[in-house]
């Protein structure tokens, strides 16, 4: 379990839950503050810095989701874990979409709460480690960086740290442009094979008739034009890492030969008869749904299971919007140096365009957009006029959609409207009831239900 001392806020109206969490955390050396209302939770979080908040979904004075939203708006470092009963699991899932780190279901166990706290502390360590402000280095001493502040991406980097020292086969899944090759390199350069070759084969770029020769090599005279013996990619990668990029694009025949090479750890050159031993670690990537490809007969099931020993899914950029501006600034710095231009960031208007665009081409599209903008820009900040026109138009359409009012629970809207009426009436119940066109008895009942009394 985590050894460092954490500061934790528990917000729950159940005294037994508060006592259990306080006892569990303090027993392991952590500092705990507790309260039983959303209002007190917000006040404590505003006044103090916490590593984690454990927040009940149902509170006497407010809805836990609303408290979560207000806590997130405070911009604090604390990760928020929702506590839920069985009947409110759907609400907890909604909370995850609103930015909660995780949720725990009652009855709580010591093991589960300490496990989620460990994950939060590990995320903080990674986020605040020296150098991450400049990005996660793909390899020590190399300029390439993985730029992220996204909780999901930080969890992936934690997986990279754990799987890299092993010889596990890794399958990296994600849309084109999400950075699959960077993750593959990060795995290689953190492994015991880091001083050996990292060989990339782009399965989508090779002609099928040349694929076997590319992978396994060929003997002199094996076919017309084979004037000398050629080593294939497997041999070139011997001792190191073999990265199959877009492995879903290869034929069933080639899949069978790759499977045999992985299983037997040996290959035969085209035109050769002697088996050649190869020691390689396999990392593969795909933008396809390989499970569906297996179901349709386009991908071998046995190869699929060989590749998915350790699957990693990279989210698209539209699902990690907190990374858009840091990535853009990273690319601005890089291209400004290359082009010899004095451009130091984005205008506020340009930032909004980038944030409202859906980025179907992911990080690669953002990189290209920034490079183009740097070429055109004459000021010290990238302006909207330097961004690609199609991007600006699409962002404007998305922004209009974002401005449409979101649907809120009726109970929440009624509570807020009654609170507004009471404020307008200066706390006078009779006047508030007249404004709402309901009788005093009904209003008193609703005030008690929503905890709006003083």
What's the number of structural domains?
4
CATH superfamily of the largest domain: P-loop containing nucleotide triphosphate hydrolases
| CATH topology-level name of the largest domain | Rossmann fold
Structural class of the secondary elements? alpha/beta
* N- and C-termini, Cα separation: 43 Å
Helix content: 40-55%
| Major sheet | 5 strands, parallel
Strand content: 5-15%
CATH class of the largest domain: Alpha Beta
Q: What characteristic shape results from the CA principal axes? A: elongated
Strand order of the largest sheet: 2-1-3-4-5
* CATH architecture tag of the largest domain: 3-Layer(aba) Sandwich
The chain-level mean pLDDT equals 85
Flag low-confidence runs. Answer: 400-405
Rg calc: 28 Å
Q: DSSP helix count? A: 19
Please report the total strand number as a whole number. 16
What does this structure look like?
There is one protein chain. The protein contains 19 helices and 16 strands. The chain is an alpha/beta fold and 454 residues long. Strand 3 (52-56), helix 3 and strand 4 (79-84) form a beta-alpha-beta unit. The two termini are 43 Å apart. The relative contact order is 0.07.
List keywords for this structure.
alpha/beta, Helicase, Ruva Protein, domain 3, Rossmann fold, 454 residues, 5-stranded parallel sheet
């Amino acid at each position: 379990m985590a050894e460092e001392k954490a500061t934790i806020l528990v917000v729950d109206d159940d005294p037994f839950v508060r006592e259990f969490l306080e006892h569990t955390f303090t027993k392991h050396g952590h500092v705990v503050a507790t309260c039983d209302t959303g209002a007190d939770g917000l006040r404590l979080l505003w006044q103090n810095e916490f590593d984690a908040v454990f927040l009940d979904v149902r509170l006497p004075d407010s809805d836990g989701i609303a408290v979560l939203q207000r806590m997130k708006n405070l911009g604090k470092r604390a990760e928020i874990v929702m506590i839920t009963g069985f009947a409110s699991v759907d609400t907890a899932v909604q909370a995850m979409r609103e930015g909660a780190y995780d949720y725990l279901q009652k009855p709580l166990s010591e093991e589960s709460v300490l496990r989620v706290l460990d994950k939060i502390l590990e995320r903080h360590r990674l986020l605040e480690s020296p150098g991450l402000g400049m990005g996660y280095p793909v390899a020590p001493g190399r300029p390439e960086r993985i730029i992220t502040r996204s909780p999901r991406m930080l969890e992936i980097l934690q997986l990279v740290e754990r799987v890299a020292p092993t010889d596990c086969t890794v399958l990296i899944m994600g849309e084109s442009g999400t950075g699959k090759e960077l993750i593959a390199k990060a795995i290689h350069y953190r492994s015991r094979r880091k001083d050996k070759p990292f060989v990339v084969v782009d399965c989508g770029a090779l002609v099928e008739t040349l694929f076997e020769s590319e992978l396994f090599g060929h003997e002199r005279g094996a076919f017309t034009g084979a004037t000398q013996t050629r080593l294939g990619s497997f041999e070139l990668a011997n001792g190191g890492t073999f990265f199959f990029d877009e492995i879903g694009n290869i034929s069933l025949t080639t899949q069978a030969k790759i499977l045999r090479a992985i299983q037997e750890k040996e290959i035969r050159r085209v035109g050769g008869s002697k088996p050649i031993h190869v020691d390689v670690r396999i990392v593969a990537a795909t933008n396809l749904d390989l499970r569906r490809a297996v179901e349709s007969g386009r991908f071998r099931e046995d190869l699929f299971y060989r590749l998915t020993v350790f699957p990693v899914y990279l989210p698209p950029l539209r699902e990690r919007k907190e990374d858009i501006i840091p990535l853009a600034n990273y690319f601005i710095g890089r291209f400004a140096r290359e082009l010899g231009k004095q451009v130091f960031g984005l205008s506020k208007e340009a930032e909004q365009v980038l944030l409202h665009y859906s980025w179907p081409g992911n990080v690669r599209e953002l990189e290209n957009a920034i490079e183009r903008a740097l070429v055109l820009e004459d000021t010290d900040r990238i302006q909207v006029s330097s961004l690609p026109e199609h991007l600006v138009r699409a962002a404007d359409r998305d922004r209009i959609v974002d401005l449409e009012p979101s649907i809120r629970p009726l109970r929440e809207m009624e509570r807020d409207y009654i609170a507004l009426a009471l404020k307008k009436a200066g706390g006078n119940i009779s006047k508030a009831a007249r404004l709402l066109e309901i009788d005093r008895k009904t209003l008193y009942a609703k005030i008690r239900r929503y905890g709006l009394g003083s």
